[in-house]
Structure formats: structure tokens, C-alpha cells
Request: fold
Amino acid sequence: MEILSEKLRPSYSAYQAEVDRLAHECQTSGPYTHCVLDPLCDTSFLAEVHRELTTNMKANFKETDLFKVFQTAELGAISEESLQDNMPSFLKLRNVIYSQEFRNMIQRITGCTELIDRVDCSANAYANSCHLLCHDDVIGTRCVSYIIYLSDPDDPWTVEEGGAVELYPLDPSSIVDPTNLSNLQGVPVANPTKSILPTFNSMLFFTVQPGRSYHSVQEVFSKHRPRLSISGWYHAAQPPVGSDMSSLQQILSKGDKVDEYTNIPYQVVPTEEMKTFPSGSIFGLTRDDVKELSKWLSSDYLNVKAISRIRKQFIEDSSVQLHNFLSPTISEDILSAIITADHTDKLGKGRPSLDYSVGVTSEWSVLGPPHKKRYLQYTPTGEATETGNSADNAGKYMSLVGEFLKSELFAKYVSAITTMILLSYQQEVRRFRPGFDYTVAHYSLLTKEKHLDATLCFVNDDKEVEDRVLEALNSSGKGKATKNKKRKAEVEKKKKGKKSSATDGKDEEEEEIILEAGGDEEDYGILWEDGDVGGFECFIEADDDAENAEAAEVYRQEKDGEEEDEEAEEKEEEDEKDLTTSDKTKNRKEQTTLLSVSALSNSLSLVLRDEGIMKFVKYVSANAPGSRWDIATEYKVLDTGDDDEDDDGSDSNEDSEAEDVEDDEDN
Reply:
């Protein structure tokens, strides 16, 4: 125990009083009981542990819908003989924190049940953009969670670098039994209320409580060093009471989906028998239909050849993504509004916001619970938009498009390009803010019949378009203060010898932030396409038996007791990472994914989702060029089964008649 800081040693004269003080702090802490030991050890000793881990251990890159992290093998499974030779200081630390004396202290401070001697821990490196989303840590016999922070002892970690552990209180309306104060259970509110910085030589721990101990690891914003830690659990002999309310069981539960669909407003509801189309139509679309659709959609998608090609692809793949879907007059208004909103809110491009209320207005509200999802949802109030509130303007534009996506006319168009008959819908207008928002795959998303997911997405994926929007914004006339700010930025740029169209009209502070994020060198479209900044939508297959489904690795980390084969670990170089490095090439963890749809501006993705398919939108990193904005519509459908039709499925006059319609529009 001599490696511990003086007050944590049983030999310390006031040890009992110190433990009592810590117990009082823990029991009176919020939003649930937790404690921080700071300092934990002798500083020079833990610095040596830091050196041993970064010198001797390799970490595998792991990514799912819940997390993105580099993690070592199970450190509890490595033999004492091996550790004594390579990492003697870590061995001492492991022996001390899992000793009977230390476990007794943890029990007294937390008031938890008796802890057994099982060792369960690993080292983690959270490099730039790594994160761990909200969960309660409950699985098996875990009783107390802990994290020992190993960030650089000579360079204190700062709030601006991210990586804090965030604690979430319960939503009062969700509490199962408010009278059971010793075992409150429910779902968390959307935003955390407590953040704990990963300070070197500190140890955070808390009792694992089903449906209560909700926490997350904030995205790491630092581009220069990873957040290093040892994390693990103390186990009890039995699982905690109320494990059926754990976040994992809530993820696996199929019982909380509420179907709230609105019927498509057909004048005459189509039926499965309607497999023949009127002469001169394009799969049922009349001339008047095409003319009306041209007010909304790009003309590229309104001729018989394009519709036939899309229809064929959808029949073959059950999915299709249509680029540049809306007409330019509509899409440009939306794109201008979303770029302006992200610029105003200072979101994206590596600019971390520490304010969870950013982007929230009277019309945009945050939606949770965060162990399943967090994003902003648009609900029009019917009131006039605040002057200059671009987010509300974007919401209004998108809401108008959303009304079109609910119409009989659009339903006819979708039937033409997919063979699906749309019956009813539910719809959301959403904003996924960089550094905050996501959805998680969970079993309550499963349906008993086919559904068609139609998601119309908007992102800032074109630097030239952004430059034009911001130039127009800066030249729109905002008074003397704005002109002075622009003049100051120009003077400062001349002093520094920097010229960048990305920063014209911005003050010095904002200019520096943009340049740090990469400025003109970054291709926004590629950032979204390669998926490293998140924002893509993934469709995955659920386990047939939810009760026996494997937990995601954030919950799992339980071993079968067998020692890791160190030689085999050394061979896995492709997906390993030295703990000391934060910028090596990382191989994305391959998942069993049926379909992944990259975020692309003004693109409509249509995906036929069968029974047993879940979906999620990957956490949007602060490194993203901006927010992901979308109109997510889910349709109940009737499949006509027209899989064997001809390529164009139409009569010989359709081509010429479609061209006639286009000629009419041109005139």
C-alpha cells in the first residue's frame, strides 16, 4: 500500500477519518453517488506506470454505434510472471487496487455490497474524435466501475481537450418507483449535469446501478495527444438487483416502440392488384404529375429512363441513394440556412462546443433518452422566426419539404421508382450537431413488417458553396460593428501574411480556429464519405433472440478466464496502435453491416427495411464540417412484388411523352 498517496494508506494516523470524509462526499454527491481520489498514488510511481503501458502495450481500434476507442487486451489475464518482467510498476498497482484492504475502502466509501477478488481491467486510449456514448455499465456481476487517469503528468489535461466523464441524472417522469429512494431506476435526461476531467493521478469510481449510473465519455477534441486511462470493475458475488432495467436490457427490449403513423392522403387508395398503368404514364405518373413534381424535384429524376433505372436498382438492391434530389431553387435555400446556422453556432471543423444547449430554440428541442439517441428535433410553433435565426429558417424550409414527402403525389412517385405502395408515415425533421448527437441501434426499432425508410439529408459537403454563403452573409450589411470586425480581420491577415477565402469577414479568433481545422486543404465531401467524422446511417441485422444477443463491447469486456496469447496479439499489427501515438493510420473495425449510407447533401436514401433490421446514425464528431440535417420519414408499405417486369415497364410512347413534358417545362 506504500504506493498510494499518504492519506489512503491504512498506516496513516487519520486514515479512518479520511475514509469517513470520502464516504460522506460520495453519499451526498450527484447526480448519483460517485467519488474521486486525487491524488491516488505517489506521482512518480504512476508516471512510471504510464511509461510502462505506453512502452509495452498495444491497443486495438474498436468502433461500434456506441463507441470509438483504442483498447488493450484484458490486463487482469496477464500473468504476474510476465508483468514482473515487463511492467513491474503496473503489477504493483494492480495488486494494490484489487487487494482486500483497498476493496474494503471502496466498500466503505460507496456503501456497496462485499467485493470479490476478481480482477477485471484494461487500458484505453481515446485519440482525437474517440468517444463512449451514454450507458450504465451494468452487465453480469459488476458492482463498482473505476477509471484511473494516466494523461501526461507534465502537461495537465484541460477542459478544452474534451474526454471528460459525463454523469446523467434520471428524468423524474421516468422513475419506476419514486418511493424507493435507495434504488431509483429510470431513463436519463438528454444532457449530462456533471463532468469530471481526466486529471492525471486521480481515480473516479461509482457503484454500478441498473437504470441509474448513466455516464459517457465526452469526445476527445485534442489533436495532439490521446486521453489515457486504466478502467475496470470490482465485482460482487451476485448481479445487482433490478438488472432488468439496465441500459443494455433497455437496448435489447422490443416492447417500448409506439407506432404512430398517419395515413397517406390518397383520393383513391391503391391496392396490390394495381399492376397495370394508364397508357402514356410513367409507371402510373401522369403528365400532370410530372409537371407538378418538377416544382420540387430535379428534372434528372423525372424522365422515363431515369425512373426505370432507379426502379431496376431498387428491385435488385432494396435500396437506392438519389443525389441532388431536390430542385436547386429549394435545395440552395436549405443549404444556405444550415451553413449559416452552423457558422453562427460555431459548430464543426474541430471547434468543440461545451454548451449542450447550442442550437436549441423555441422550435428546435433536444430529444433523448441519450442511451438510445440524442439530436435536435424541429417542431414548428407557427410564430414568426427570430430575425437572423438560420436554424429556425432551415427548419421551416425542411418542414415544407417534409409536407411534400407526406403527399399523395410523392407517394405516387415513390411507387413508380420502387414498386412499393406507401400506406402511412411517421416523420421527423432532425439536426445532429457535431460533438453531441447520434442514434444507437436498439431492438425497439424492429418491426413486424417491411418498412420503407426515406431520409432526405443535408450537410455542408462543398467548400466552395460554403464560401459563397459566408461571403453573402458578411456582405449583407450588418452595421458598423460588423464592418469594423471585418476590417480588423483583414488587417490581422495582412500582418500574418495569410490569405484564405474560408476566413474572409471573420474576426481573428475565429480565423485561427478555422485554420487549425485544416482550412482550404480539407475536402468536406471526402470527410463525410469516409465516415471518420460519423454522420453516416447504418443498417444492421439484429440477433434473432434478443435475450441471448451479445452485448456490445462497451458492456462486454468479460473474459472466460483464459490468458491472452501474447504472440498472437503481436501479429495483429493491422488494427493495433501504440498507446503513445494519436495520429497513426487506423483501420475501422469491420462490423456486420447490411448497408451504410454516407451523409451527402440534398440526397434521398430509400431503404426497404425488413423485419429484424435495426439502424443508427453514427455520432457526429466535432471534426465534421457541420451538422447533419435530415428529414427522416418512415413508411408502412405494401409490396406489389413486381420483380419480374421489363426494364422500363412502360409502353413505347412513354419516352416521347416524358420528353414532351420536359419541353413544356422548358417553355
